[in-house]
Design brief:
- With 324 residues, the protein is α/β, with parallel strands linked by helices.
- It is 25% helix and 22% strand.
- Strand 12, helix 8 and strand 13 form a beta-alpha-beta unit.
- Helix 2 packs across helix 3 and helix 4 packs parallel to helix 6.
- The radius of gyration is 19 Å and the shape is globular.
Length: 324
C-alpha cells in the first residue's frame, strides 16, 4: 500500500471519475481506499500477472517490431466494460492477489534477467496502479529501457503529463466515438479520452489506437468514419489504427463475433483517412505496407516477424513513422 500521488483529502483526482471516497471506502476502480482522509493505492508492488510478450501483442506494430517486452499489471480498473476479456482480474479485489511484494526495482531486474529492454504496463488499466507504474518506469528509464502503456486513456491531464515524461509508447483503446455508448458500455465518457490522445501526441509519445468493432454496439460504420476523420485531423494520418474483431466475453457472451465482411468494410473506410490500418484477430491482415509504393515492409505471420525496412525506410526511400 502506498499513499496516492493525485488526491485531495478524500477525493481521488487521478482519473475523470474524480471519486469522493468516504472513510474506509474505495473508488470505482476498487483499489484506491480512504484511510483517515488520505487516499492509498492498495496494489502497489502487488502484480497479479507478469509475462514476457511479443511487442505485437500490445498491439504496437511501429515500435521495435519483433522484440520481446516484459508485461505486468495489477487487479482493478476504472471502467466496467461489458465485454471485458480480462474481467476476472479487472474486477478482482486486491485481497485476492498474492501478497508477495514485487517492488518496482524487482520488476526492472526481472526484465533485464529475461533479456527484455522494454516494460509494458498492461493486462488491466495501468492508470489504477499509477504509483507502481511511474516508480517502475522511472527506474527503467534511467537504465535506458523503454516504457509502454496499454490503456483506456481515462486519466486526468496532470497525472498523464507527468507520466509522459517516462513513457515512450502507448496503445489507447478508443472504444466508441459516441459518449452515450461509452457511458452505457464502460461507465466512462468520450471527451476525456480524446483529450488524452491529444496530450500523448503533443508530448511526443509514440501512439497507436485500437478500436474494437462489437456487433450492434460499435459497428456503425458512419460513426466509425467520423472517428477516423477525427484521428486524422487531430492526431495525424500516420497514427496506426488497429481495428479489432470482437469475440464473446463476460456480459456479452451472447453477442456473435464481428463478421469478417464488417472488418473489411471498416478497413476500406479507415484507409481513406489513415495510412496504416490493421485488422486484429483476423489472419493475414497485419502486414505493414509502404503507403507510397505498396512494397511489403513488415511481414507478420502470427508473432513471427520479417522486417524489410532499412533504417526506417522503404526501398523507395519513403520514411515510415515509428521506432525501428
Amino acid at each position: 500500500m502506498k499513499q496516492a500521488l493525485f488526491a485531495e483529502n478524500n477525493k481521488c483526482v487521478l482519473c475523470p471519475h474524480n471519486c469522493i471516497i468516504s472513510e474506509g471506502k474505495r473508488g470505482i476502480c476498487g483499489v484506491r481506499i480512504n484511510k483517515e482522509d488520505n487516499i492509498y493505492a492498495l496494489v502497489y508492488g502487488r502484480p497479479c500477472s507478469i509475462a514476457i510478450d511479443p511487442i505485437e501483442k500490445k498491439p504496437l506494430y511501429h515500435f521495435f517490431p519483433g522484440k520481446s517486452i516484459l508485461s505486468f499489471g495489477t487487479v482493478g480498473c476504472n471502467f466496467r466494460c461489458k465485454g471485458c476479456q480480462n474481467w476476472e482480474i479487472a474486477t478482482a479485489k486486491p485481497e485476492k492477489t498474492d501478497k508477495v511484494s514485487y517492488p518496482p526495482k524487482k520488476i526492472v531486474e526481472t526484465a533485464k534477467e529475461k533479456g527484455c529492454d522494454m516494460i509494458a504496463y498492461t493486462y488491466t488499466e495501468p492508470t489504477v496502479f499509477y504509483e507502481y507504474m511511474i516508480d517502475t518506469a522511472k527506474i527503467a528509464k534511467k537504465q535506458g529501457m523503454k516504457n509502454v502503456i496499454v490503456s483506456n486513456g481515462y486519466i486526468n491531464e496532470k497525472p498523464l503529463r507527468e507520466l509522459c515524461k517516462v513513457i515512450d509508447a502507448a496503445n489507447i483503446d478508443l472504444k466508441f466515438f459516441n459518449n452515450e455508448k461509452y457511458m452505457k458500455y464502460s461507465s466512462g465518457k468520450l471527451e476525456p479520452i480524446l483529450k488524452s490522445l491529444k496530450i500523448l501526441k503533443e508530448e511526443g509519445v509514440w501512439l497507436e489506437i485500437t478500436n474494437l468493432l462489437i456487433p450492434g454496439l460499435s459497428d456503425d460504420l458512419k460513426e466509425f468514419e467520423e472517428m477516423c476523420k477525427w484521428i486524422k485531423e487531430n492526431l495525424g494520418e500516420d497514427v496506426p489504427l488497429h481495428i479489432s474483431r470482437f469475440f464473446p466475453h463476460f456480459k456479452l457472451g451472447n453477442v456473435s463475433p464481428t463478421p469478417i465482411e464488417t472488418m473489411e468494410k471498416a478497413k476500406v473506410i479507415a484507409k481513406k483517412y489513415l495510412r496504416y490500418v490493421y485488422l486484429g484477430n483476423v489472419p493475414y491482415e497485419s502486414n505493414t505496407i509502404c503507403p507510397k509504393c505498396n512494397n511489403l515492409l513488415i511481414k507478420r505471420d502470427g508473432y513471427n516477424i520479417l522486417n524489410n525496412l532499412e533504417k526506417g525506410c522503404c526501398v523507395c526511400k519513403e520514411k515510415i513513422p515509428g521506432s525501428w
